[in-house]
């Protein structure tokens, strides 16, 4: 397809290293406040801007594995591309980038997601899916594409907001549950409805070309980073699986049953892939009380 040059306006208002285009000219999505990074939610439960990690003491511009405290779990990136997990690894490896307290330079190769957008993206009007995002240039497999940024909420506020939605409202709230070796679960709730970045316009696909990885920089509050799952051509729409099942465990019988019961609440999927599930992923647990919190997760990671 021909790649449109996009409108002259920058949707990010100059807040990104690379301008975010908008198409077609004269049209714009409903108003929201653009923020390239996560911000504290209205409940003030979590402050994603707080710096709690100590920095590495590396004095070179390029941190190296085993000599750098941020890379004690191994190398994260290779030539700006996320290093794939080893086949023998049972769990996804957590990703910690060097942070603002580190003594290494800004050119350190362990600083990728924190640099923000590096590719020209365009928010555009789709035929059936509302607004979407496409790339205006080639993106190699493994490269960081964009963050899914917004208000970081506590569980109760996330539940309150999603239960207040009507069938006509678009749901932007995402819940990430990371299953730890210890058996514990770390939960992160991000809502870019009112404050967010270009990631809020990404559509779901049952055969996505992006996948999400929680990346930590300054604290344990992760950046929800989206990486290219394959080489992506200029003009191609960007998408990820809202259920977070890319490179994760297959759906369980229990989750399948829950999905069937919740079909009346779910919205149709228009991704058009060969394996389309007909409905967008749905998390019934956010309609439950905290004591009954046991539903399926929109995103299910196992670091």
What report would you give on this structure?
This protein is mainly β and 303 residues long. The chain has helices at residues 155-163, 253-261; strands at 20-23, 33-34, 39-40, 77-78, 81-82, 95-96, 121-125, 131-135, 144-147, 151-153, 174-179, 185-191, 195-196, 203-204, 210-216, 223-228, 237-240, 299-301. The strands form 5 sheets. The chain has a 5-stranded mixed sheet with strand order 1-7-8-17-14, with no helix packed on it. Strand 11 (174-179) and strand 12 (185-191) form a beta hairpin. The longest helix has 9 residues, at 155-163. The chain is globular, with a radius of gyration of 19 Å. The two termini are 38 Å apart. Residues 1-7, 247-259 and 289-303 have low confidence and may be disordered.
Q: What is the percentage of strand-forming residues? A: 15-25%
What is the number of helical segments per DSSP (H or I, 4+ residues)?
A: 2
Low-confidence stretches: 1-7, 247-259, 289-303
Strand order, largest beta sheet: 1-7-8-17-14
The helix fraction, in percent, is: under 10%
* Element string (H = helix, E = strand): EEEEEEEEEEHEEEEEEEHE
List the SSEs and their pairings.
Elements: E1 20-23, E2 33-34, E3 39-40, E4 77-78, E5 81-82, E6 95-96, E7 121-125, E8 131-135, E9 144-147, E10 151-153, H1 155-163, E11 174-179, E12 185-191, E13 195-196, E14 203-204, E15 210-216, E16 223-228, E17 237-240, H2 253-261, E18 299-301
Parallel strand pairs: 1-7, 2-13, 3-10, 6-15, 11-18, 14-17
Antiparallel strand pairs: 4-5, 7-8, 8-17, 9-16, 10-12, 11-12, 15-16
């Amino acid at each position: 397809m021909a790649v449109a040059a996009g409108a002259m306006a920058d949707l990010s208002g100059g807040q990104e290293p690379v301008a975010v285009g908008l198409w077609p000219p004269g049209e714009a999505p409903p108003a929201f406040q653009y923020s390239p990074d996560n911000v504290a939610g209205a409940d003030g439960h979590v402050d994603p801007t707080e710096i709690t990690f100590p920095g590495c003491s590396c004095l070179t511009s390029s941190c190296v594995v085993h000599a750098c405290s941020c890379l004690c779990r191994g190398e994260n990136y290779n030539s700006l591309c996320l290093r794939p997990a080893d086949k023998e690894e049972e769990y996804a490896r957590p990703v910690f980038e060097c942070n603002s307290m580190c003594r290494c330079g800004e050119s350190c190769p362990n600083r990728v997601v924190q640099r923000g957008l590096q590719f020209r993206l365009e928010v555009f009007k789709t035929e059936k899916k509302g607004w979407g995002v496409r790339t205006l240039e080639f993106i190699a497999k493994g490269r960081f594409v964009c963050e899914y940024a917004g208000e970081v909420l506590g569980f109760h506020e996330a539940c309150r907001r999603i239960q207040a939605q009507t069938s006509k409202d678009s749901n932007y709230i995402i819940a990430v549950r990371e299953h730890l070796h210890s058996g514990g679960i770390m939960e992160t709730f991000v809502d870019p409805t009112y404050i967010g970045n270009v990631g809020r316009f990404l559509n779901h696909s049952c055969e996505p070309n992006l996948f999400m990885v929680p990346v930590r920089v300054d604290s344990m509050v992760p950046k929800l980073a989206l990486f290219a799952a394959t080489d992506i051509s200029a003009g191609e729409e960007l998408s990820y699986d809202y259920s977070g099942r890319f490179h994760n465990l297959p759906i369980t019988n229990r989750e399948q049953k829950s999905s069937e019961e919740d079909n009346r609440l779910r919205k149709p999927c228009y991704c058009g892939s060969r394996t389309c599930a007909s409905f967008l992923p749905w998390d019934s647990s956010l309609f439950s009380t905290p004591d009954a919190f046991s539903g399926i997760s929109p995103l299910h990671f196992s670091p």
